[in-house]
From TrEMBL:
<dbReference type="InterPro" id="IPR009678">
    <property type="entry name" value="Phage_tail_completion_R"/>
</dbReference>
<protein>
    <submittedName>
        <fullName>Phage tail protein</fullName>
    </submittedName>
</protein>
<dbReference type="Pfam" id="PF06891">
    <property type="entry name" value="P2_Phage_GpR"/>
</dbReference>
Length: 158
């Protein structure tokens, strides 16, 4: 899977303490779910919860959350829905570990796609990054039917 390594790199690049002390960041996945269809290939999606632990954690929550959100925007955009009524987000907890060390735990639901192709009698599986965001769509301002103007939206200059 690609996302845990990518997230580790992004957080280390954005948070000097994690860059200088990489052992303070633990990323684990204990279980997940594989979803596939009866399509022509054996491609599948892995759905899992990534546990991110920063320990000891002596900083402010936003020091981790802001770079995490920047990473999610590109790598798991469905956790940042346009409509606030849609589910999204992730959970976090500030607690004290068994050894008395303060720690931040963040649980992030992630998905990753693996493309499986067959070349002769051999199967090849490759993890792929998220598809790029769609290009910005400009809305038309006029509707024409049978060569006649039906309606026109006012423009900001009108």
């Amino acid at each position: 899977m690609l996302k845990p390594t990518s997230l580790r790199q992004a957080l280390a690049a954005a948070i000097p303490d994690l860059r200088d002390h990489p052992d303070r960041l633990r990323l684990t996945t204990e279980s997940g779910r594989i979803v596939s269809t009866l399509a022509a290939t054996l491609s599948f999606e892995a759905q899992y919860q990534l546990q991110l632990i920063v320990s000891p954690f002596t900083g402010e929550l936003e020091e981790v959350v802001v770079p995490l959100l920047a990473w999610l925007r590109v790598n798991q955009p469905d956790l940042m829905p346009v409509n606030p009524e849609q589910p999204g987000g992730f959970s976090w907890q500030l607690a004290t570990a068994a050894d008395g060390t303060p720690q931040l735990t963040i649980l992030i639901p992630l998905t990753e796609r693996a493309l499986v192709s067959q070349q002769g009698e051999t199967l090849h599986a490759t993890w792929v990054p998220e598809p790029p965001e769609p290009a910005a769509v400009t809305r038309p301002v006029e509707l024409w039917m049978k060569d006649e103007l039906v309606s026109r939206q006012p423009t900001s200059g009108s």
